Amino acid sequence: MDPMSLRHAVLGLLAVEPATGYDLAQRFTKSISNAWHAGHSQIYPELARLQAAGMVEVVGEGARRSRTFAITDGGHEELRRWMTETEASRTQRSETGVRWFLLAVLDPEDRRIALDQEIAFMTSEAQRLQAIADAIDETPDPHPFRATVDLGLRVNAVMTDWLREQRAATEPDRPR
Fold it and tell me: What whole-number distance in Å separates Cα of residue 79 and Cα of residue 58?
């Protein structure tokens, strides 16, 4: 098994378009933060390692010594290899998953409070995802991650429906 590394996430984002380290940090936050979080302190050293390995190259320099990186053929090959020849690690930690699993241990009143908080979060997340979809739809060219945003919206809707069902089941007048 070849576990996901920051290397693969950075290569994947650079496969879309060249970017500075700052741009990459913003892309992590806006696009894949639910799956992987990376800050500046992790991204810049990884870019240096990728450059040393010949998987990215500097294609531009800007103000304050900022450098724009692009993926090389070697980087594309590594990303292809990782995506097609390795088994994904399906294990992950999810505080949300643990909280939802443990809802049953709360008394109904506390369960309603927790569920209301989760529903509010999922509603705001749906709004955030829809804003991303709308912004993508305003661009002239098809965006490679539009389908993933649609997936996020669909998964969010299913999860929100489940939360609402759980919330309805906690109502005192509901037969058990």
Answer: 18
Residue 154, number of CB atoms within 10 A of its CB = 11
The second-level CATH assignment, the architecture, of 6-85 is Orthogonal Bundle (1.10)
Q: What is the pLDDT of residues 7-43, one digit of tens each?
A: 998 999 999 899 999 999 888 877 776 667 777 888 9
- Is the C-alpha dihedral spanning 88, 90, 94, 100 positive or negative? positive
Distance between the two ends of the chain, CA-based, in angstroms? 46
Asked if residue 82 lies in contact with residue 60, where contact means CB atoms within 8 angstroms, the answer is no
Compute the distance between CA of residue 157 and CA of residue 155 in angstroms, rounded to an integer: 5
One-letter amino acid at 44 equals Y
Reduced to 3 states, what is the DSSP secondary structure of residue 2? coil
Q: Where are the domains of the chain?
A: 6-85, 95-169
